[in-house]
Amino acid sequence: MSEEPKLHPNEGIKTRSNYLRGTIAEGLADLSTGQLATDDLQLIKFHGSYQQDDRDIRAERRAKKLEKAYSFMIRIRVPGGVATPKQWLETDRMAHQYANGTIKLTTRQAFQFHGIIKTNLKQTIKEINEVAMDTIAACGDVNRNVMCNPNPFQSQVHADVLKLSQDISDHLTPATRAYHEIWLDGEKIESSEEEVEPIYGKTYLPRKFKIAVAVPPSNDVDIHANDLSFIAIVENGQIIGYNIAVGGGMGMTHGADDTFPRIADIIGFCTPEQAVDVAEKVVMVQRDNGNRVERKHARLKYTINDRSAEWFLAELNKYLGYDLQPVRDYTFETNGDRFGWVYGADGRSHYTLFVQGGRVLDTPDYKLMTALREIAKVHDGDFRLTANQNLIIANISSWSRAEIERLIKHYGLDKAGLESGLRRSSIACVALPTCSLALTEAERYLPTVITELEEVLEEAGIRHDDIVIRMTGCPNGCGRPFLAEIGFVGRAPGKYNVYLGGGFAGDRLSKLYREAHPEDQLVELLTPIIKDYAANREEGEKFGNFVIRAGYVEATTNGPDFHLNIKPDAFA
Ligand code: SRM
Ligand code: SF4
Q1: What does the pLDDT look like over 83-141, one tens digit per residue?
Q2: Residue 153, pLDDT score
Q3: Positions marked active-site
Q4: For 530-560, what is each residue's pLDDT tens digit?
């Protein structure tokens, strides 16, 4: 008789945790150390936080025989990416009072704080909740922050997709009272039998789960990086339903070809009324069929890849009790943001601001954090975080417009990203010094590479062409580098894998062009390709398409194909 494979240890941690409680509360009260107990390090993710340490000073602390400089990252959920001016001001205050004085706008339309010491963790989470935001399920093996197209100018369509993303987010939020007990001093429930997780069960999902809602022709939420996406089908200004995309994802491990990024399968269409139910049932199919033995093979993309999209659709239809309808036609044109002013028909205006690496902070030359604080004080609309780490100052009324316009100019926000189309189309993940998985720099280094590339672009006469470029410090892909036209992915300290050929609309994965390329030779590597592109591209041809036509890389058609047909000189 064959033995059942052993479940991954995280499954045991979840089972024993009493619905995500573990010993987090006791750990917070222990003042003898800045860290939490080992099992709680997994559980605290479900509450929206990660224990980290400052990697810039690791060696120095070790030499002094000191405990690592532990602190916590907090991720604040912002379903659909919409925050009020009051929430912005409070986020800014907490960033200074408890964190490292910066706010990170993430690639999933959320806020992140870094550098919160353990003794401030509970107070910070409490204050986040006091302004009607939360952190539960921002991380962990559950559904994360639900993204949606933040476009404020198609107001009715946007209101509908925002409502859908908030409804899905609410519906899939874990039901456990642990979050309220630990962080909000909520009443303790004596017996765990009294509470149930109707959707997740005791062991939650095999792995993280991500959902996005897109409005074509914009694919700004990068549907192919999500486990589940809803693609709005709009007719006569009304959403008539959604195409359903399943099994996208980015994360992989260097050297392990059985891990790969994957493009989602578009499997059917549902009505607006069915959408929340579809989300629930997709989650349940993955709950019951996802791999709980190997965490590196546990995302929905592998469940589908191992068994086929047809199997998944049949299974989903069984869970739903009805069949999804056939897929409707749609087209994506871009996965980028549209910058600057847009005026809505309702008299409201919107300003999309480029935020380098999504980091909001003040530097001596650019007081972005102060500027946004001053804007928030007079703003009567809302802020919208984009999935490209940028910010929309949205729904500006006619009476506050002049003042906001003045502040934008006064603080130089109107100059942000004007340097090049490449910069405006860039994403960099956090990486060093806080991310424990980073092999290289990303957020702190990509701007330098772009500045050098801008000289090449200028010379080639294409400075203002949009070329999607993304850098991450490791292959987990938090900046979605495998969906970029140019992707740099940390391979080893000072070395990056260079990927080329992603689709401009985020609809095709890239391919490895050079492995472990030294960081100071990235510009040299790309210079002849950029010049070739400028000289020989066809009318309207995008960089990602050109590098395939010109033979620099082969096209990647889907996940497992990502590691195939790599040219031998990629390893030179
Ligand atoms: Fe991510 C882990 C940061 C979006 C794939 N991600 C991490 C951790 C928590 C590192 C860790 O596990 O210790 C990073 C914290 C760094 C820090 O110091 O803050 C981290 N991920 C981020 C953010 C902040 C990047 C950013 O610069 O914006 C993004 C936060 C999003 C949010 O608000 O929820 C972020 N991560 C993504 C995305 C992009 C997306 O979802 O659109 C991906 C690729 C899509 C996907 O999931 O396939 C992504 N992160 C990962 C993975 C690989 C997952 C996998 O399937 O293999 C990990 C590692 C893991 O889960 O084991 C990871
Ligand atoms: Fe960290 Fe890697 Fe994600 Fe960058 S891609 S934030 S280095 S896990």
Answers
A1: 999 999 999 999 999 999 999 999 999 999 999 999 999 999 999 999 999 999 999 99
A2: 73
A3: 75, 144, 208, 210, 429, 435, 474, 478
A4: 999 999 999 999 999 999 999 999 999 988 8
Output the CA–CA distances (angstroms, integers) from residue 131 to 2, 125, 169, 322, in the order listed. 54, 10, 18, 40
Is 472 touching ligand 2 by the criterion CB < 6 Å? yes
C-alpha span between 150 and 162 (Å, rounded): 8
Report whether 133 contacts 84 (CB < 8 A). Answer: no
Residue type, 427: I
What whole-number distance in Å separates Cα of residue 148 and Cα of residue 156? Answer: 14
Name the CATH topology of 9-187+198-320. Answer: Sulfite Reductase Hemoprotein; domain 1 (3.30.413)
Ligand 1 probe mutation, 10, 148, 220, 478, most atoms within 8 A of CB: 478
Strand 238-246's sheet: what is its strand order? Answer: 147-148, 211-214, 228-235, 238-246, 265-270
The domain at 340-415 falls in which architecture?
Alpha-Beta Complex (3.90)
Domains 9-187+198-320 and 340-415 share a fold: no
DSSP assignment, residue 554? P
pLDDT recorded at residue 79: 87
DSSP state of 4: P
Residues with CB under 6 A from ligand 1: 50, 52, 73, 75, 106-108, 110, 112, 144-145, 208, 210, 222, 225, 249-251, 299, 358, 389, 429-430, 434-437, 476-480
CATH topology of domain 422-563: Sulfite Reductase Hemoprotein; domain 1 (3.30.413)
> Taking every pair of C-alpha atoms in the chain, what is the biggest distance, in angstroms?
76
Q: Phi/psi zone of residue 513: left (φ > 0), alpha (ψ -120 to 50 degrees), beta?
A: alpha
pLDDT value at residue 195:
64
Domain range list for the chain = 9-187+198-320, 340-415, 422-563
Residue in 387, 382, 353, 385 with CA at minimum distance from that of residue 368: 353
Q: Is the CB of 430 under 6 A from ligand 2?
A: yes
Which ranges of the chain have pLDDT less than 70?
Answer: 1-2, 189-195
pTM of the shown model:
0.97
